Automatic annotation (TrEMBL):
UniProt keyword annotation of Methyltransferase present: no
Taxonomy, superkingdom: Bacteria
Localization: Membrane
InterPro entries membership: O-antigen_ligase-rel_domated, WaaL-like
Keywords for the protein's UniProt record, in alphabetical order: Membrane, Transmembrane, Transmembrane helix
Main location: membrane
Name of the molecule in the record: O-antigen polymerase
Pfam families reported for this sequence: Wzy_C
Annotated TM spans: 23-40, 46-64, 71-90, 96-118, 130-153, 165-184, 191-207, 213-230, 242-259, 328-349, 358-378
Membrane topology, from the record: Multi-pass membrane protein
Length: 409
């Protein structure tokens, strides 16, 4: 595979014969990751088959001794698997437990594959450029859903955009994490292009009418503004102040339209009431089974309330899902996993030596904050794009450590 240096530029080794294959994979990943509808057998998507094919080539490459795989986040994931196995004892839906655990293992393998492939600034630059381009197109499609009645994927709720995703909440999660990638440091992009990308992605996020996505976005932007104010010079603080004032003026002018947007705020009471009922049922299930009922089992064994489609509801929270389905040990593993991701983001921020590096570091922090907020009311840990973000954050930590080590040597 590709091993390059970072710093003033990415320099490929003379025997870098697989770089074209890697570029094709990163291109396919960015293009096909949002295309999850219609689902293929066992709830798979096109990107899963691409991952398996390229992952097999990567493993073969390693078996031949050409590259030693790098492992990250193994301890918290192993703890999560152990908790899942313990929770499977006496489970009446063992098949569901096994399939969910297999999905977990696949996603972790996907993370490790991408973590190993993102081995230079060039790799990061390529993936992030394509990712933002596709996310901008996805945001534009979401706006077309709402304001042009242009639908590619059928939807049960025509008042909320879903783009190429199976539902609006998944699209909102994808666009939310993509928005903060606009602060990346890996290529010189004009302010106009970043603003256009940000506008399309945010517009698409608004079209999903996801309250948790909007909350995560606002808190992420607050983190960026506070960090920029704290680190910036007097002139930069003045520019930030002007920008905040202009943004506040735009929001004030558009507030009447926002308040009258169909199915936005009026969904909040019903949505919160429904989740409270689900979480109450989950709490009662935990009291009865403190070691868990098995991964993915809640909606199948009679604890969850019925949803509008007549089936039982999921827990709608990664934290509650870990606690109820995998028990106390599962929640501990989940928190350790997220804590490790947070520590990576903090490392990237602390190691920033230039304004570009700091801006990207604070953007990474905003992505993590967005995921933490969104996972309170949705189960996003099985979304493929979330694991892509985890791999990007871990790869950024790896590149910074390698760069610092070379600088000291």
């Amino acid at each position: 595979m590709v091993t390059t240096t970072i710093g003033k530029g990415a320099v490929a080794r003379p025997d870098d014969r697989s770089s074209i294959l890697k570029r094709l994979y990163l291109l396919a990943l960015a293009v096909f990751c949002p295309m999850v509808y219609p689902s293929l057998p066992f709830n798979t998507a096109i990107v899963d088959y691409i991952n398996v094919a390229f992952g097999g080539l990567f493993l073969l490459y390693g078996v031949l001794g050409r590259r030693k795989p790098q492992i990250r986040l193994l301890f918290p994931f192993t703890l999560l698997v152990l908790a899942s196995l313990i929770a499977m004892f006496n489970s009446p839906v063992l098949k569901i437990n096994i399939l969910t655990l297999v999905q977990d293992i696949y996603l972790f393998g996907f993370f490790l594959l991408l973590y190993n492939l993102l081995d230079s600034e060039r790799d990061m630059r390529l993936l992030l450029r394509i990712w933002l381009l596709v996310a901008s197109l996805e945001g534009g499609l979401a706006l077309a859903n709402m304001y042009g009645s242009f639908w590619i994927v059928p939807t049960a709720d025509p008042t909320r955009a879903n783009g190429t995703f199976a539902n609006s909440n998944m699209l909102a999660s994808y666009l939310g994490v993509a928005f903060f990638l606009n602060f990346q440091r890996y290529f010189d992009s004009s302010l106009l292009s970043r603003m256009l990308s940000g506008f399309l992605i945010f517009g698409g996020m608004f079209a999903t009418k996801s309250m948790s996505a909007m909350l995560g976005f606002l808190l992420g932007m607050m983190l960026i503004m506070v960090g920029y104010w704290w680190r910036g010079s007097g002139q930069q603080r003045l520019k930030l102040g002007v920008g905040v004032f202009m943004l506040a003026a735009v929001i004030t002018v558009s507030m009447p339209m926002i308040m009258q947007t169909e199915n936005l705020f009026e969904r909040a009471p019903k949505s919160s009431e429904g989740r409270l009922k689900i979480w109450q049922a989950g709490y009662e299930s935990f009291l009865a089974h403190p070691m868990g009922i098995g991964a993915g089992a809640f909606k199948y064994i009679g604890h969850g309330p019925y949803n509008a489609e007549g089936g039982r509801s999921e827990l709608h929270s990664d934290y509650m899902g870990a606690l109820v389905e995998r028990g106390i040990l599962g929640l501990l593993a989940h928190l350790i996993f997220l804590g490790t991701i947070i520590s990576m983001a903090l490392y990237c921020l602390k190691q920033a030596q230039t304004e570009r590096e700091f801006f990207w570091g604070i953007g990474v922090g905003a992505v993590v904050l967005y995921i933490l907020i969104d996972s309170v009311t949705h189960e996003v840990m099985h979304d493929r794009h979330v694991w892509v973000i985890f791999a990007i954050i871990a790869a950024e930590e790896k590149l910074i450590k390698r760069s610092r080590a070379r600088a000291q040597a």
